[in-house]
Amino acid sequence: MYIQVIKAVESVRPECFEACPAAERTNQSSACYLHCFFDTMVGNSTAKPPVPKMKGADVLAPFVASFASDDPTKGGCPTAVKPGY
């Protein structure tokens, strides 16, 4: 489910993530990636130019869609099967 939310956030400002050094563009623990991710999601009024926050519905929708289907092409998450059950 979190993968769908991450994709949604990254799709709003891809230019920010693309401006990170190559090794940090998809490294979710790098300073550059985290800066882009949280500025995009919660906004940054002190940035030049200011970054507006995402609408709550735009963050929530991919999360909810994760439970609506087990088909990843529809935004869903595959059903997890615990080995031995």
Considering the chains and any ligands shown, give keywords for the structure:
85 residues; mainly alpha; 0% strand; single chain
Question: What would you note in describing this structure?
Answer:
It is a single chain. By secondary structure, the protein is mostly helical. It has one domain. It is 48% helix and 0% strand. It is built from 4 helices and no strands. α1 crosses α3 (31-42) and α1 (2-12) packs antiparallel against α4. The longest helix is centred in the C-terminal third of the chain and has 13 residues, at 56-68.
Describe the protein's topology.
Elements: H1 2-12, H2 14-18, H3 31-42, H4 56-68
Helix pairs in contact: 1-3, 1-4
On the 0-100 scale, what is the average pLDDT?
Answer: 91
Largest sheet: none
> Based on CA inertia axes, which overall geometry fits?
globular
Number of β-strand runs = 0
Count of DSSP helices? 4
Structural class by SSE content: mainly alpha
What is the distance, rounded to the nearest whole angstrom, between the alpha carbons of the first and last residues? Answer: 22 Å
Query: Which stretches are poorly predicted, pLDDT < 50 over at least 5 residues?
Result: none
What's the SSE pattern? HHHH
Number of domain units: 1
How many whole angstroms does the radius of gyration measure? 15 Å
